[in-house]
Known about the structure:
Blueprint (H helix, E strand, L loop, with lengths): L6 E3 L4 E4 L10 E4 L2 H9 L6 H17 L6 H16 L6 H16 L5 H30 L7 E5 L14 H10 L4 E6 L6 H13 L3 E4 L4 H6 L5 E4 L3 E3 L4 E4 L2 H10 L4 E4 L5 E2 L16 H4 E2 L2 E2 L12 E4 L6 E4 L2 E3 L2 H8 L1
Parallel strand pairs: 4-5, 4-7, 5-6, 7-10, 8-11, 10-15
Antiparallel strand pairs: 1-2, 2-3, 8-9, 9-14, 12-13, 15-16
Helix pairs in contact: 1-2, 2-3, 2-4, 2-5, 3-4, 4-5, 5-6
Amino acid sequence: xxxxxxxxxxxxxxxxxxxxxxxxxxxxxxxxxxxxxxxxxxxxxxxxxxxxxxxxxxxxxxxxxxxxxxxxxxxxxxxxxxxxxxxxxxxxxxxxxxxxxxxxxxxxxxxxxxxxxxxxxxxxxxxxxxxxxxxxxxxxxxxxxxxxxxxxxxxxxxxxxxxxxxxxxxxxxxxxxxxxxxxxxxxxxxxxxxxxxxxxxxxxxxxxxxxxxxxxxxxxxxxxxxxxxxxxxxxxxxxxxxxxxxxxxxxxxxxxxxxxxxxxxxxxxxxxxxxxxxxxxxxxxxxxxxxxxxxxxxxxxxxxxxxxxxxxxxxxxxxxxxxxxxxxxxxxxxxxxxxxxxxx
Length: 344
Ligand code: MRU
């Protein structure tokens, strides 16, 4: 299959590429229940903030579609159970909660409808969230592409491409948009330990498109910057607080500090659904901790000591003063705290 299908609605099920198997195996899984969707989010079959927002919305639509409740009160109870199960899957990316909130509003606004009509309304809303995401990513690409100069070298972290979204990507969308304009540039892809989203996923996406790249291990980033080899850095975000602090994949903060020291522009590319005005600063953003095995194992093989104590936060927070600008579908914002709330 040439086109990457991160996630797609198929009437009575959802299909996803299993991102844990990439880049060596392109396996598509079919999920028929909301519980299967919840587990797919938890186990990283699907990951990336906008993608898990879409998955959660489709999980709700699937759960309600399969419900055998015959009246509004019991359907409402089913909705709450589905909502809460999906809500608990991953804590950091606010897009997941945003997707669930949209489905909740749609459910509440459709209570006057018959049960089959209500099920259809939820299905329509989930598909709309998916379609809007692709459009939003393309807009971010258009808004940010001028920040990539011809004959330059840019750096990116984690995976923020088609695989992290419904399609096209956020930070990788900007890179893609600049490439579509025939600009010539090289992308340094940080491997992104421990889960290796850069090495396994971003590198694969760039390879498929023929965008020139060099993969580096994360600890090589500083030396490249010191040599003047990096013109700009583009990353995504999982949650942006009201003051512009941004949570993203663990290791993003270190890159932003290095960028500041070397006076390299550091751009965060994220849809406005990633902005959480209820979070005043980055300190209030919940940070997911994942299994120690992600650190002690590489490619499923134990490399470190089996029962050694491990610290494995999945995300860190980049303070707003280290971010040159946030690129959204509504424009590029550089004086963050004053203007973020005006976006929503
Ligand atoms: O743990 P992951 O792989 O879901 O983390 C993904 C990231 O940190 C991305 O950079 C972020 O979601 C933005 S992607 C559009």
